[in-house]
Amino acid sequence: ARSSRRARGAAAPRASAEKAANAVGLYDGTLLFHVYPQLKAPKPIFSTFLEGALHCAEVAKSHPSYQTAHFHEAFDTERAVNEQPHAYLGMSVFSCAPENLWSDFEDLKDCLDIGHMDQEHHPLVCREAAAFPGPESALAGAPHGAVRFAETDAVVVVAVAADDDAAATWTEWSGASKAFEKSGEKFLGATLHLVTEPGAKYTHVVRVELGNVSDDVVEEVVEEARTKVKAVARDSGSSFVVEPYRCAFNIEKKGTPAGALPAVREMQKKQRENAKEKAEFDAKRDASEKEPERVVKSAEV
After folding, report:
1. Is 274 left (phi over 0), alpha (psi -120 to 50) or beta?
2. How far apart, in whole angstroms, are the C-alpha atoms of residue 216 and residue 59?
3. What is the number of other CB atoms lying within 10 angstroms of the CB of residue 25?
4. Cα-flanking dihedrals φ and ψ of residue 295, to 5°?
């Protein structure tokens, strides 16, 4: 679940004056997607890829328009453990206009280059262009910085270099329509983003939220997108990426430092596992205590 995101049957959202929406119901700000084809340790400054990436996330908090960030990890966590290409994805949200992102905090771009030194990486400055099923996107429907994504929800992200007319059919080539069909009531929506900087590796980014669905549904949506995106890609080689993710970390402006989030996540995982083991132990103990009572009653009969 997420805060400030209306679920079916939930209370109405806050007044529109508090929403981060523009006149057409899309997010009135900037999204910075960071695509990582290589997951190399930027030595000697950082010892692992994740250390460098999360350092960048911490520095980004100092941007005057920073709202929140959502750091994505591969749906198959083993891909992240083995540092395979595209096993992580950055997504940061700023309330400024795209053209002001770098100029408002010049250290940010330098930090991204240092945190990902000697590796291919693509920071994509974007604006929202469409929402499905719409008319309002998730970010636009809440106040700035209020949306959080759950780790249990599957996400498919498609980045592609395509011509402008690709936006007309984005729900098809991104797998959004397939996700809507297969996820049913669990489907949380999809958003098309246009990359605003000329010369970027990709021109369009789509984020499809499937919800808490089975692995089979995720695989079917990914396969649909990988097949159909070729029709709009400028070439069939390196001009598109289709990957399934989960949101591993919601990085707030104030709170836990980004670099500490993996340790906090692991601690919370251990706590959940311990609680589950305790519940199973208590259930078995209660069952064994009731068994002699049933035996005694049977003997009395």
Report:
1. alpha
2. 38
3. 18
4. -65, -40
Q: Do residues 241 and 190 touch, judged by C-beta distance below 8 A?
A: no
Cα radius of gyration rounded to whole Å, the chain: 22
Element (H, E) at 131: strand 122-132
Q: What's the farthest any 2 CA atoms get from each other in the chain?
A: 86
| Rounded distance between C-alpha atoms, residue 252 and residue 272, angstroms | 23
Cα–Cα distance list, 110 to 50, 52, 257 (Å): 18, 13, 20
In whole angstroms, give the CA distance from residue 257 to residue 62.
12
Please state the length of the chain.
301
Residue 275: CB partners within 8 Å, gap ≥ 6?
A: none
245-281: pLDDT as tens digits: 999 999 999 988 888 888 777 776 667 677 777 887 7
CA distance 100 to 240: 27
Collapse the DSSP code of 267 into the 3-class scheme (helix H, G, I; strand E, B; otherwise coil) and give the result.
helix
Of 242, 203, 245, give the one whose Cα is nearest residue 225: 242
Cα–Cα dist 103/176, whole Å: 34
Among 126, 196, 140, 135, CA closest to 26: 140
Token pair listed for 205: 């980014």
- The helix/strand/coil state of 78 is helix
pTM of this prediction?
Answer: 0.84
63-117: pLDDT as tens digits:
999 999 999 999 999 999 999 999 999 999 999 999 999 999 999 999 999 999 9
Place of tokens 């098809």: 172
